[in-house]
Amino acid sequence: MTYKSLSVFVVLLLLVSFTAIAQTGTLKGVILNSTNTPISDVNITAGNSGTTTDENGYYSIKIPANQEVTVTFTHITFKSVTATFNLKNGEEVEFHPVMDEAIEQMSTVVISGKTRKDVQGIITLQPETIRNIPGANSGVENLLKTLPGVSSNNELSTQYSVRGGNFDENLVYVNGIEVYRPFLIRSGQQEGLSFVNTDLVQNVDFSAGGFQAKYGDKLSSVLDITYRKPYQFGVTADLSLLGASVSVEGRSKDSKFTGIVGMRYRDNSLLVNAKETETNYDPKFADVQTFLTYKFTDKFQLSFLGNASINKYNYEPETRQTNFGTLQNPLALLVFYEGQERDKYETYFGALKGTYLVNDDLTLNLIASTYHTVEEEHFDILAQYRLGEVNTNIGDEDLGEVEFSEGIGGQLNHGRNDLDALITTIEHQGSYKKDDNDFEWSIKYTNEDIRDRLVEWEVIDSAGFSINPPSSDAFNDQPYSPYSGPLEPFQNVRAKNKTQIDRLQAYLQWSRRMDIGDNEAWLNVGARAHNWTVSGEGIESTSQTVFSPRAQFAIKPNWDKDMLFRIGTGLYYQPPFYRELRDSSGTVRPDVKAQKSFHIVLGNDYSFKMWDRPFKLTTEAYYKKITDVNPYTLENVRIRYRAKNNAEAYAYGLDMRLNGEFVPGTESWFSFGYLKTEENIDDRGYIARPTDQRLKFAALFQDYVPSLPKMKMYLNLVYNTGLPGGSPSYADPYEYQNRLPDYKRADVGFQYVIVDDKDDYQSGWRKPFKYLSIGIEIFNVFDVQNSITNTWVRDVYSKRQYAIPNYLTPRVFNVRTSMRF
């Protein structure tokens, strides 16, 4: 089946689905008074439906979907609150009104599909969509890859690049606390689990650039995750052939204590065993996370976010055969392996956050967190290969076999890499509201203590003769001429570092909503300051400081058409992390400067109705001028920096996303992105950066069968043009500017909901379930052979080097069930 066939399939689904029947959505939450105390026995009415809050102030009510519904909250002691909602089919929305005795309540609160964060250029993703959309590595990152400007050519990896940046240029926050990606990971199949547990997520915000000063010092993007506070007891479980997850949540009777705990286990064997390399593969990826809160008084509460993750990766390759070349000249690479790889990644994270509500206008926070990771990467793998011509004689019993060897050789890779990093942070945050003005500030201290041992060497031979490293002046031309020089490893890196980095960061920003004539406007101005000092054994202590001003402006004209225009600009610095200080030889260079980017983003949101359903077209054009660039090489997901600020770069592009209810009651979207990013290293001229992803198309589509609405379909479609890369790791990028093949992938999931929130079974085996579904997922539906890197092999006769693609996962079937009690 081709992508054209897929388009026809989608159109047919759209036509059939337009006849869908009306469904319901769920409104729930906790009602509080002005001192944040839950109110019991509040009457809630919505048309002919009604309910009351329990002793903890909690309520839940079902209202008709895809239409405006007015909900009224009344109590004998408090002023009434009226709100208007327009929910999608099956959508759950939390609404927590505050009822007051003394002041007049707002007569009507309109809650529509338009998010308050549109003016900030932030995309908000629904947690339920994140959990349902299929993917080889499902989760928040899987959904991000369908957004414009976000790219990844590796479905096994949770890493992503945004608008020409690399994986290290993305900020990730959970409940306002920054989290980190692994240090030593070099391939997607080693990664296992993302830090973010989707079972615990309440809110997901994402910005692809031009973000506010309150977010940290990175060049590309911000992913801001909020874990939820539960309002009642519940258990959620998800089981599949790729692993399992379980979460338990609850709330005390006095509503002072809330807690949620999530446990996950993942096994990538289903995906890795389907690849072309025959292996003995024994991965164990597991973690446990918890988010606890306790409200001591109406003004003070304390929360704890904890995570423990243990990932073990045992990999023993056996054989591999890769066919490549052309129909006229088909070739094959046969590899026989000896040895194994044993990796272990242990991560422990804990954060305490105290929140003090001084009054309705002033909030103060104090956060203390510790992140500890211990990583081991040990391998000894001997690969002996044959490169030869393939038998293409149809009918021959040896069809497809290598019948003539053009190259014979071997490669021995050795690694003993160990890293121990302890990152400790203490931060004060505050916010103050005065009339229409919002002020936010923070001061933060971070200590990074990193101990690193790097031992890697590689020996390559071809037809029994050792190949010297590229830096060697001696040329080994055996067997044609004798060679008497010393035998050297092709690559040899050895280093041992003990490094400390002390950081002091602060920001202050001001926001204001205003009217300009008949037009609504919003302004944000802020600045960050960042000072860091690098020291350690054998390292000369070096300190640097940067100052980063930023601004955003948005205006909504008083037009008949619902339009919003915004602009974001500023200077964005990225002070180097340890990985950016370490060069290709393993040496730490403390004088590496912060990369600097002048960034401007122009955006427009056009909200409209089509087929009497809401849609929104978002368009953003951006430009980044980057100086003091630290060049790097990218191999799979491993980044190796030169640790020199010897380049400059630029990036510009256009991102577009059309999202809305293509099928009544469900949200889908189609994305397009154009990007061009180049760098100039040592004034040698501009060449494409490793993340120069020129074109990107993506679609996320949800549907259901009108006559059987419990049968649902989820489609995740991505097309990316090829990245520069696949060159030998030692190669000069100015000599290798070839691109990898285009990345094309479609994942589809079919789900049948056995029990949902609208069902009320009083007996039988379905009674304990609040939700139960079962389904199948098909990853890489069209079985496209995508490649992420190349293996380079020499032909001893012609002296040519062949680039043999390393393919990613083929078509894989998965079975999945989800339940909630």
Concise overview:
The chain is mainly beta and 821 residues long.
Tags for this model:
45 strands, mainly beta, 58% strand, disordered N terminus, 821 residues, 22-stranded antiparallel barrel
Task: Kindly describe this structure.
37% of the residues are buried. This protein is mostly beta strands. The chain has a 22-stranded antiparallel beta barrel. It has five helices and 45 strands.
The overall pLDDT, averaged over residues, is: 84
Percent range for helical residues? under 10%
Main β-sheet description: 22 strands, antiparallel, barrel
User: What structural class do you assign from the helix and strand content?
Assistant: mainly beta
Q: Mind telling me the C-alpha Rg?
A: 28 Å
Beta-strand percentage?
over 45%
Number of strands: 45
Task: List the uncertain runs.
Answer: 1-22, 102-115
Q: What is the helix tally?
A: 5
Q: Which word captures the global form?
A: globular
In whole angstroms, how far apart are the ends?
40 Å
